[in-house]
Amino acid sequence: MAADAAEKERGKRAALSFAAVALVLGLPLWWKTTETYRASLPYAGISALGSLRFQLTVPVSVVFAKGTLPGAQQRRLPLADTREEEILLNRKPSVTSCYEMTYRSATATEQAALTMATVQEADAALLLLQEDLLGSLTVYVIPETSPLLPQGIGVYIGKHRSAVMRGTQGPGDVLAAISARVQQIVQAMSFTTDSITTALSDRVPMDQLGTDTRRPFKSSLGYEITFSLLNPDPKSHDVHWDIEAAVNSYVQPFLDKLGSVANFSVDSQILYYAVLGVSPRFDKASSSFILSALSLPHVINPVEARLGSSATSLYPVLNFLLYVPERVHSPLYIQDKDGAAVGTNAFHSPRWGGIMVYNIDHPAPDKAPLLLRVDVDMVRVMEVFLAQLRLLFGISQVPLPEEFLLESPGNNGLTDWELDRLLWTRTVENIATVSTTLTSLAQLLDKIGNIVIKDDVASEVYHAVASAQTAMLELASGHLGSAFQASKEAVTSSERAFFDPSLLHLLYFPDDQKFAIYIPLFLPMAVPILLSLVKILREAKQSKKEPMKTD
Amino acid sequence: MAGAVAAVLGLSLLLGSTGGSTGPPRDSLREELLLSPLPSGDLAATFQFRARWDSELHREGVSHYRLFPKALGQLISKFLVRELHLSLTQGFWRTRTWGQPYLQAPAGAELWVWFQDSVTDVDRAWKELSNILSGIFCASLNFIDSTNTVTPTASFKPLGLANVTDHHLLRYAVLPREVVCTENLTPWKKLLPCGSKAGLAVLLKAERLFHTSYHSQAVHIRPICRDASCLSVSWELRQTLTVVFDTFSIGQGKRDWSLFKMFSRTVTEACPLVSESKIYVDISSKTQENELLEVTPLPLSVHEASVQGDRRTYAVYDLLSPSLFNVSRSLNVQLKWKRPQDSLDLSTPVLHAQRYVSGYGLQTGEISTLIYNTHPYRAFPVILLETVPWYLRLYVHTLVITTKGKENKPSYIHYQPAQDRRRPHLLEMLIQLPANSVTKITIQFERALLKWTEYTPDPNHGFYVSPSVLSALVPSVIAMKAEDAEQSPLFTSLFPSSDGSSYFVRLYTEPLLVNLPTPDFSMPYNVICLTCTVVAVCYGSFYNLLTRTFHVEEPSRGGLAKRLANIIRKVRGVPPL
């Protein structure tokens, strides 16, 4: 009987050690061999980015010309001051704008420049004296009676990064008196609540957005600009356009200026027999054809099938179409919502491009040749397209009071401070994009267990987080240029990580297949172990009860 | 959608000199339809659209397209392509009964590209290019990889202007499995400047084009000389489409045909952008035997040409000539045979070929190619290109070439053996074909076993072996005079003609279908189950042995017999044992 008990004990121990081996050796082995590789990711950094607390610092120097400050205040210069202002958006993201004001009096050369004959000359002369730093602004205060600005004009905003304003005469603190005006100038030249809201349009609830906010193209590393001439009636119109010269003289300088923002490529094509999707309405009163604003959304889709996407790049495409209506449908005019004809005869579609209708003067039907040769007036066309291009990039005019005088951008079609405005919003938008991309990647990883994260993907994510953080810091310290570069890098890295094909390698491995493989292996192994464990437990319970009974 | 305001931009100051600098048109377009009755009674219709652009496509910067499609132009300038030939074909051109084709293409998809010598990584450019082309033409060209790409050394010479003939810049691939359908035709039509709205392209109605015995559409891009002095380069895009209609089935047993019967459309106008738009009808048999056939409307002119070693007569309809549409608004070319033809002159073409797989079982097999030279007295050489996938292991020592019962030694052999899962076999030979002879080329192969994931979705259908390619300068029976390529009809001017005595022919044989040993695809699961059962049985008994306690059973009180006896005793009322 004793031997029997010893034997039983041995069996029990053997069963237990089987279970132990399965538990200690088998389970980790199985776990290790079937695990998907996942390098560690900076989740803390990603969620910190997700809160999007921006601080945008604009370095502003206010320069007082001779005779604008009373002596007492003159002596207090130079002077530094920081003004912070919360831009109200949602709770998250939060944007604080911070103006770092430095006040100083004009140097001798500046003084000389400010007494030049015209303000344009002064602007050009002052450019040489400034350090050309992206994002920094200079406001020159001149005496109220100075002849530099024309009558009735209080503020002049130049082509570059400076503005000239009239000071106020009179007792009291001049700095306090001009500060509201300076604030207005600086906002016009850097960023406003609206422009930041536009940049963060994905994060801000819809009701807070204006109609214009969805218009500009999303920030991207490059853009393809395609000009297309649509000639639906090649039988009666032989249309020629000198697009090459027009692009070189109008579009290219503008794009060169924007070269630091993104890469651009420009091409053009002529499409024949491409018709608009809607047939225009005939208007008897003016004996012309009318395309009403309501029907414009239906115009684009049928045309787009013919446009063709770019075969060789993945950048978004901006389409500019010049439509020469058929002879039977001309002249064709676009009507806005109120029923008035649109002056430029053009319209644009947000984040897509623009369409312009180009009417041809037809000679009297009896004299008209069968095939009419048409040379397109490219100046007229490019004026419209360039204006649309500015709108689509979000370079729009800020509403300004009457007494502000804006210098026209000249050959480039873009002033320095407009470029700065673009960079401010683009940097904010880029950082927001990075945070969205990385957050959704983190959420995906949380949800789907089969996604592999290789080391190089992980390093891209680390790089993206680091660059985005650098960009935030640079923004806070007022270095717009480096902030933008860092944000661009962050976007590149985060997109590369998110769209890496290695993420998908093991994605298709459904659970039913897993069970089909595991069940034949695990069932016969696990059942005896479990049964004997149950038996041992039951016996242990019984043996505990038994002594109680005998007592 | 607000009206754009363009007030602020002072553009008008800048340039007054735009416009006015338009010289002669830098690009031109020609279209052409060739209708040729085939010896077998079928009818071949060959469309050719040629856009010619006097421009340097490889120049950097802004690019402006007019007649040349933007998508292809961008492709050429990005990948530095020197020449590109893509064809998508459904069906097989039966050279024996249909005669020599103007432009044959192998069944499925064929792509061959010459790159510029400035391309450093040709393989990468080839891969990206085929991927983009597959997007443009909605074809599975993305399946082109190193296992079906070869670099022929002799067969594919550039057709256009080229001074580089380093064959490392050439890539060639065929996908015999590719099925061609409407989805491939639509993007092809979209490349035409007039689309399918005007000109000859109105006839391209997918419903009719795919109801044919043979359908082949192709795109050929090549640089050509701009003028006779050839100092600068122009780019040529040729879009060709060949269909073969079975006239018997269309015309209810008669061989008569008309444009409307075949395409269910008629031609009403030329595309306004073209500089030439013509329909050619082959009426050679009219002149041979007196008045066999009749074409209506009466052709305005007749063109005589020597094409592929044969003198041929074509009725020409020039769509640009105003007198054509004077009588009726639309042109419906009709051809009527005057008397029913019973004896079809099946003149066999000078060069044709045939290929088949022989052998039995699933281990070895043999590929045989028969090449016929029916020329009565001239021998000529032919270049044969064979690409065989790696899973058919060729034994080159079994290569036998026999002509008229004697061994025929090829004067040039280039063989590149396959590497498993990396590249296919490539065999190129220059073989002399004696006059009036049949040359038989056989080579044996062994079928490899594939991994179970490498099989196609329907492995029992078999695996395709791409057609072999024959390129030859065939001596012509008659003397041909060299014509100016710009003036002559398009169908004669794709392949460069050398001298008057011979003409270039490229033929493709049938694709082969080979069965490979196919496993039972539930096998992996069966293996798992079997292994698990074995493991479970071993493990179970081992486990039992170790954990069970054994003790000696007392000798039992008899077996079954005793129990039975007890039952009987109980019944009888006797005490049990």
Quick structural gist:
Chain B: This is Phosphatidylinositol glycan anchor biosynthesis class T. The complex is a heterodimer of chains A (551) and B (577). Chain A is an alpha/beta fold and 551 residues long.
Write a concise keyword list for the protein shown above.
heterodimer; A: 551 residues; alpha/beta; seven-stranded mixed sheet; five-stranded mixed sheet; 17 strands; flat; B: 577 residues; alpha+beta; Immunoglobulin-like; 3 domains; eleven-stranded mixed sheet; five-stranded antiparallel sheet; PtdIno-glycan_biosynth_class_S (chain A); endoplasmic reticulum (chain A)
Describe the structure.
Chain A: Pathway: Glycolipid biosynthesis; glycosylphosphatidylinositol-anchor biosynthesis. Chain A: It comes from Gopherus evgoodei. Chain A: Keywords: Endoplasmic reticulum, Glycoprotein, GPI-anchor biosynthesis, Membrane, Transmembrane, Transmembrane helix. The complex is a heterodimer of chains A (551) and B (577). Chain A is an alpha/beta fold. Chain A is 44% helix and 19% strand. In chain A, a hairpin with a 4-residue loop joins β10 and β11 (288-292). The two termini of chain A are 23 Å apart. The mean pLDDT of chain A is 83. By secondary structure, chain B is of the alpha+beta class. Chain B folds into three domains: 26-343, no CATH class; 351-480 and 501-514, Immunoglobulin-like (Sandwich), CATH 2.60.40; 519-546. Chain B is built from eleven helices and 27 strands. Chain B has helices spanning 70-79, 95-98, 122-137, 182-190, 206-209, 247-250, 259-263, 284-288, 324-327, 523-547, 560-572; strands spanning 27-37, 43-53, 63-64, 81-90, 108-115, 149-150, 170-175, 214-225, 233-245, 257-258, 276-282, 293-296, 301-307, 310-318, 334-337, 351-358, 364-373, 380-388, 392-403, 406-407, 412-416, 425-433, 437-447, 463-465, 469-475, 502-508, 512-514. In chain B, the strands form five sheets. In chain B, strands 6-7-5-4-8-9-2-1-11-14-13 form an eleven-stranded mixed β-sheet. In chain B, strands 16-17-23-19-20 form a five-stranded antiparallel β-sheet, with no helix packed on it. The relative contact order of chain B is 0.12. The chains are: A alpha/beta (551), B alpha+beta (577). Chains A and B meet through α1, α8, β9, β14 and α10 of A and β3, α1, α3 and α10 of B. β9 of chain A pairs parallel with β3 (63-64) of chain B.
